[in-house]
């Protein structure tokens, strides 16, 4: 039956029609992606009055200033560290939950749906929610940490605590995202393999470690890249609502610094050059993804 | 058929004429746009003030639009100006003063009022409020709108419990006395003594002004873009080091950069004393139910016999260039309206922000408002206790937002023990000066 399904090949008789059809997409891409990116690129080599009027071309002054600023380098390191933590936490937990949910459970569909919910929460809301739990003055959990665990929990003052707090808030909603991909990935693994291993006496952990995980590796890699991109950009809302880059710049990740210098501080040159750096980093990551990973990723089960 | 077409055409003609005429009538009052950052209760007060103006005359209609918080409002103004769709009036926060002044986009208020034939006696205004928005020659660049200053809130119940006498509303306590007061508080079982919001504004900017210590060279930047920060001076460093020392026994504890954290600590009675803007009074009135509180002036050092005025925070109204003569007549009339005693008295009572004219202040005194709410007068007295000097009149720094941010960061590094007070203030000066040089290059 399957072989008989006819694949209808469309042939465009007109040469212009296909171009006409992709035109809307091209226009949207050009105006909303390339045009701003180009503007950013131009601003990054200028020093200008935000109100317009006075702009001077200054070659790479903005970039030189950036890379000679030890705090900018620190911000890059913070971003990478934060990003790695977010990815590690959300992947580990996502994978763990996926493994659990993949077992034969009653109400499997309901449980899965419920586990996906946090992904629908906007990062800023996630930040506020976690702040209500962990703020040293009015956080419920922080009260418990101080009272019952006797720990000196103070993310308002301690950079490590603050970084931990924003990592948790950022990773939390990404767990659901990862969960979806892992569940899909696991369903693609033939049951016969796992059953055969079970008959041979392999423990559940060994089955997971030697069969499931290797077969999940393309998904794992894909999810890692997506998580890193997420933690570079989308975590802005979390940082903004929770720490505003503090204390003492401990959670000042690149994207937040762009906002602070450009939007709040109105230094367009500095902030544009930072955007260009950020854009470059992401382009490199994406190119790597396409080069090494994209081909191996299985999108369907 | 012919009749019908004719009829139809007649109807069209009449309708067209009506639309045209009504358009003429409707277009009569000139619309003045004002973008502001006042929401909630304050936003309603602003709306009432606008309505009072619109009802009082028929030539102009002022339309007020809330554009988000200060950053967002200024950004909306920047974007609009670049697109040549700027409003007539834009509310901008005090740290953006230098950027607005040099933007090349504003019509200075003193010039506007003069051009429109208003002969305003600026002496009748509260000088420490005006001086923040004046250029080096004493010309007013923007109209002060919401102005506040930091004061000290204290928990009367906790003070009684610890056996501390109530504080004077005019004569400030010394920082040494504060050390004793906070020690007593902690000893009596309160979790912490003192906490404060907006640390750069309260502990560095206002501290410097009240002790008449320059914050930056060139008269705090008023007299030149080539100014440099001076906040690593001995007095300021000593003050920061003292606060750090107080952290050991919780006489001071840090609650966060802005106001949310510290004010929550005060309301929860975790801190007995809390330094923040007078604009918090309204919030205290609304949220504090389970204890008595009062307001006192900010502490000063014992050696400062006659402390200077404190400086303001808040925002002012800037008039944009690029509108026609008739519009500006309306803008001037509206600014004049906002400064009338009735409006200022109303504004002060509803929001706690200062009245900007002496006439309004006198009117409030006369009607006995301060007898009823004595704590409302603490800030205004502290602000006007002496005429501002070149050093206490305000701050005029480029990229001041970034500089405040730097000071915040460096102070946090003192509080969490990463740096000493001296190191942190030295670094703040170094980093701040880089921002100042960058700004100087942009506007030279």
Please give a handful of descriptors for the protein shown.
heterodimer; A: 301 residues; mainly alpha; MetI-like fold; two-stranded antiparallel sheet; 12 helices; B: 444 residues; alpha/beta; D-Maltodextrin-Binding Protein, domain 2; 2 domains; five-stranded mixed beta sheet; four-stranded mixed beta sheet; 9 strands; globular
Q: In whole angstroms, how far apart are the ends of chain A?
A: 21 Å
- Give me the strand/helix succession of chain A: HEEHHHHHHHHHHH
- Report the oligomer: heterodimer
Number of domains of chain A: 1
Q: List the strand order in the largest sheet of chain B.
A: 2-1-3-9-4
Number of contiguous helices of chain A: 12
Low-confidence stretches of chain A: none
- The CATH level-2 architecture of chain A is identified as Orthogonal Bundle
Q: Return the structural class of chain A.
A: mainly alpha
Low-confidence runs of at least 5 consecutive residues of chain B: none
Short summary of the structure?
The complex is a heterodimer of chains A (301) and B (444). Chain A is mostly helical and 301 residues long.
Description of the structure:
The complex is a heterodimer of chains A (301) and B (444). With 301 residues, chain A is mainly α. Chain A has one domain: Orthogonal Bundle (MetI-like fold), CATH 1.10.3720. Helix content of chain A is 70%, strand content 2%. Chain A has helices at residues 16-43, 61-67, 70-101, 108-116, 123-134, 140-149, 159-187, 191-199, 204-233, 236-242, 254-264, 268-293, and strands spanning 46-48, 55-57. In chain A, α5 (123-134) packs across α7 (159-187) and α11 runs antiparallel to α12. Helices cover 50% and strands 12% of the residues of chain B. Chain B has 20 helices and nine strands. In chain B, strands 2-1-3-9-4 form a five-stranded mixed β-sheet. The radius of gyration of chain B is 25 Å and the shape is globular. Chain B starts with a helix and ends with a helix. The mean pLDDT of chain B is 93. Chains A and B meet through α11 of A and α3, α12, α19 and α20 of B.
């Amino acid at each position: 039956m399957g072989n008989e399904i006819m694949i209808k090949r469309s042939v465009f008789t007109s040469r212009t029609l296909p171009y006409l059809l992709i035109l809307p997409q091209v226009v949207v891409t050009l105006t909303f992606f390339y045009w701003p990116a180009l503007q950013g690129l131009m601003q990054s080599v200028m020093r200008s009055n935000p109100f317009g009027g006075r702009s001077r071309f200054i070659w790479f002054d903005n970039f030189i200033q950036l890379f000679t600023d030890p705090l900018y380098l620190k911000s890059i390191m913070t971003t990478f560290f934060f990003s790695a933590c977010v990815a590690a936490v959300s992947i580990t937990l996502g994978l763990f939950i996926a493994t659990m949910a993949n077992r034969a459970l009653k109400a499997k569909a309901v449980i899965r749906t419920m586990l996906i919910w946090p992904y629908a929460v906007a990062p800023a809301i996630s930040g506020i929610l976690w702040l209500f739990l962990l703020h040293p003055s009015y956080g419920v959990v922080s009260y418990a940490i101080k009272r019952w665990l006797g720990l000196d929990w103070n993310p308002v003052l301690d950079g490590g605590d603050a970084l931990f707090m924003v990592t948790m808030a950022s990773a939390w909603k990404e767990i659901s995202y990862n969960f979806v991909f892992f569940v899909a990935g696991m369903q693609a693994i033939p049951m016969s393999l796992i059953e055969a291993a079970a008959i041979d006496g392999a423990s559940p952990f060994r089955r997971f470690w030697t069969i499931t995980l290797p077969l999940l590796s393309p998904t794992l890699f894909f999810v890692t890249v997506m998580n890193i991109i997420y933690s570079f950009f989308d975590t802005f809302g979390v940082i903004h609502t929770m720490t505003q880059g503090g204390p003492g710049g401990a959670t000042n990740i690149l994207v937040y610094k762009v906002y602070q210098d450009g939007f709040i501080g109105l230094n367009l040159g500095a902030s544009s050059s930072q955007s260009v750096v950020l854009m470059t980093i992401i382009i490199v990551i994406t190119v790597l993804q396409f080069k090494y990973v994209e081909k191996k990723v299985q999108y369907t089960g | 058929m012919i009749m019908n077409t004719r009829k139809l055409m007649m109807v069209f003609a009449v309708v067209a004429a009506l639309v045209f005429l009504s358009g003429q009538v409707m277009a009569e009052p000139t619309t003045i746009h004002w973008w502001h950052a006042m929401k909630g209760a304050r936003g309603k007060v602003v709306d009432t003030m606008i309505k009072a103006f619109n009802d009082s005359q028929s030539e102009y209609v002022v339309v007020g639009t809330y554009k988000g918080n200060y950053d967002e409002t200024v950004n909306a103004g920047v974007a609009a100006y670049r697109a040549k769709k700027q409003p007539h009036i834009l509310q901008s926060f005090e740290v953006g003063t230098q950027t607005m002044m040099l933007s090349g986009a504003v019509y200075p208020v003193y010039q506007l009022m003069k051009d429109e034939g208003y002969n305003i006696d600026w002496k009748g205004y509260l000088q420490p409020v005006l001086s923040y928005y004046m250029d080096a020659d004493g010309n007013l660049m923007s109209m002060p709108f919401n102005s506040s200053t930091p004061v000290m809130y204290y928990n009367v119940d906790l003070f009684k419990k610890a056996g501390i006498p109530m504080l004077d509303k005019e004569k400030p306590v010394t920082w040494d006395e504060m050390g004793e007061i906070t020690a007593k508080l902690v000893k009596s079982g309160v979790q912490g003594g003192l906490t404060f919001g907006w640390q750069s504004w309260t502990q560095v900017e206002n501290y410097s002004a009240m002790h008449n210590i320059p914050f930056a060279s060139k008269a705090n930047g008023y007299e030149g873009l080539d100014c440099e920060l001076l906040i690593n001076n001995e007095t300021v460093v000593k003050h920061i080091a003292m606060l750090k020392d107080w952290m050991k026994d919780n006489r001071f504890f840090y609650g966060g950069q802005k106001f949310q954290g510290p004010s929550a600590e005060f309301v929860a009675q975790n801190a007995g004393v809390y330094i923040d803007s007078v604009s918090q009074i309204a919030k205290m009135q609304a949220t504090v139910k389970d204890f008595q509180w009062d307001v006192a002036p900010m502490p000063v050092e014992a050696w400062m016999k006659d402390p200077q005025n404190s400086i303001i925070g808040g925002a002012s109204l800037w008039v944009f260039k690029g509108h026609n003569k008739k519009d500006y007549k309306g803008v001037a009339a509206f600014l004049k309206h906002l400064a009338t005693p009735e409006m200022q008295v109303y504004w002060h009572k509803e929001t706690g922000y200062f009245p900007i004219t002496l006439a309004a202040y006198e009117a409030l005194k006369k009607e006995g408002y301060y007898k009823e709410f004595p704590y409302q007068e603490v800030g205004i007295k502290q602000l006007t206790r002496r005429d501002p000097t070149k050093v206490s009149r305000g701050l005029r720094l480029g990229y001041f937002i970034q500089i405040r941010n730097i000071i915040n960061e460096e102070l946090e590094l003192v509080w969490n023990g990463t740096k000493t007070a001296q190191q942190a203030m030295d670094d703040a000066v170094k980093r701040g000066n880089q921002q100042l040089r960058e700004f100087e290059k942009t506007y030279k």
